[in-house]
Design brief:
By secondary structure, the protein is α+β, with helices and mostly antiparallel strands. It has three domains: 122 residues, no CATH class; 143 residues, Lipocalin (Beta Barrel), CATH 2.40.128.120; 113 residues. Helix content is 25%, strand content 40%. It contains eleven helices and 19 strands. It has an eight-stranded antiparallel beta barrel with strand order 3-4-5-6-7-8-9-10. Helix 3 crosses helix 5. The longest helix is centred in the first third of the chain and has 19 residues. The protein starts with 9 loop residues before the first strand and ends with a strand.
Length: 407
């Protein structure tokens, strides 16, 4: 084994190795001063409302360093490990005192102890070797999330695009902060990144979000933006899926500044707003209870047919032949010279009113139209079937009037 004590200014430990190191430090301290189980953590580590005259690790470390030591540093690292974070980074000055407190000079001597298995040593050495040749990449993730609001998160890519850490910070209406941390693995395949994350609740590892991003033929770090999808569950335990954008930053500080900034790029807002699917975590015995609109679903089948729309504006009438596909509810133009897109069909007012929206591409006076018609009027056998519309014409004028449905 080589000398890994000088590979970088910071030392990266696996969660297992750090936990063993921490336990050894606590055990030595407890044995030295006969510390009982009721000794508070603030007194053990030496921070917050602690008694400086009592034994604490802060004083122990300052005797070694001959300089100021932050008593909360090791405590914070302990909390990181408890979240399930796979790697714990120790700064240069603290790793010196940690090993020295145990009567050791460096990590190499620590790994040589009999209490550490060969498999644990192997994982640790691999991380150290990789840390000398790879760099971390920092991104901010954007997505339309809980409470119908845009959210930001910290994304850190490590170990040659093999590992990922994602941190989301939520603030509720009372100003209370909640942090959700996910750790995962990355697989590259056929121009895509597949990300599988986990999160820890206490000591229990749970399934997290699944992410997929398109990267094409280039290396992922060459792209300033990555666009993809996520699926998982939200903080209300609903099943969710949606669109996500990752933006690359030069360093960790710039990433953190962007996450803390409550402003959003308008381009990102436009791309992400409402791009979210939420499925309530409730098991329904009857399909008519799937959602509030389920009882009116048969109406959508009843309106699926071919129509001639007579769109009246001032003294002109514009004819448009279209078809509403059964089951798929896709609106198509029967006239092959026209193409319909961005179409929507919605039942509103307890299924009593049908709203149809679509864009018309091709040589036609109207370009975008929204139509409202009473369902009863549309499906009745006799009489005129008249609805109201608002539209944008070829000259970008906003127009409105009546539209008649013939079939």
């Amino acid at each position: 084994m080589g000398n890994y004590n000088k590979v970088s200014k910071s030392l990266i430990l696996t969660n297992e190795i750090f936990t063993i190191l921490l336990n050894n430090i606590i055990e030595r301290f407890s044995n030295t001063y006969q510390i009982q189980d009721n000794y508070k953590e603030t007194e053990v580590f030496g921070f917050g409302n602690y008694t400086p005259e009592k034994p604490n690790l802060k004083n122990e470390f300052e005797k070694i360093a001959k300089a100021y030591i932050n008593g909360k540093y090791l405590y914070n690292k302990k909390r990181e490990a408890l979240t399930g974070k796979p790697f714990i980074k120790i700064s240069d000055e603290y790793r010196y005192v940690f090993f020295n407190y145990l009567g050791l000079r460096n990590l190499e001597e620590f790994l040589a102890q009999g209490s550490i298995s060969e498999e644990q040593k192997k994982k640790q050495v691999e991380i150290l070797i990789n840390s000398t040749t790879t760099e971390d990449y920092y991104y901010t993730s954007y997505y339309y999330g809980e409470d119908n609001r845009l959210n930001k998160g910290e994304v850190i890519i490590r170990n040659k695009w093999k590992n990922i850490e994602i941190n989301y910070v939520y603030e509720d209406n009372y100003g209370k902060i909640g942090t959700y941390t996910f750790f995962g693995t990355i697989t590259k395949n056929e121009g895509f990144l597949f990300i599988d994350t986990k999160f820890f609740n206490g000591n229990k590892k749970n399934e997290g979000a699944k992410l997929v991003f398109f990267i094409g033929k280039s290396a992922p770090h060459e792209r300033d933006y990555l666009i993809g999808t996520y699926s998982g569950f939200d903080k209300y335990d609903n099943t969710i899926a949606g669109k996500m954008i990752l933006k690359k930053f030069d360093n960790k500080q710039k990433m953190e500044e962007e996450v803390q900034n409550k402003d959003f790029d308008p381009v990102i807002c436009q791309e992400l707003n409402k791009k979210r699917i939420v499925v309530d975590s409730v098991i329904r015995k009857n399909p008519l209870l799937f959602s509030k609109k389920s009882p009116y679903a048969q109406i959508l089948n009843d309106i699926s047919r071919e129509y001639l729309l007579k769109i009246n504006h001032q003294k002109e009438t514009y004819d448009l032949k279209l078809k509403v596909e059964k089951y798929h509810l896709k609106i198509k133009s029967i006239d092959e010279s026209l193409f319909i897109e961005n179409d929507e069909i919605n039942l509103i007012n307890n299924g009593q009113v049908l709203n149809i929206v679509f864009t018309i591409n091709g040589v036609f006076y109207i370009k975008r139209i929204s139509i409202y018609i009473k369902v009863y009027n549309l499906i009745k056998e006799n009489g005129k079937r008249i609805g109201k519309y608002t539209a944008a014409d070829v000259n970008n004028n906003i127009i409105n009037g009546e539209v008649e449905f013939l079939y």
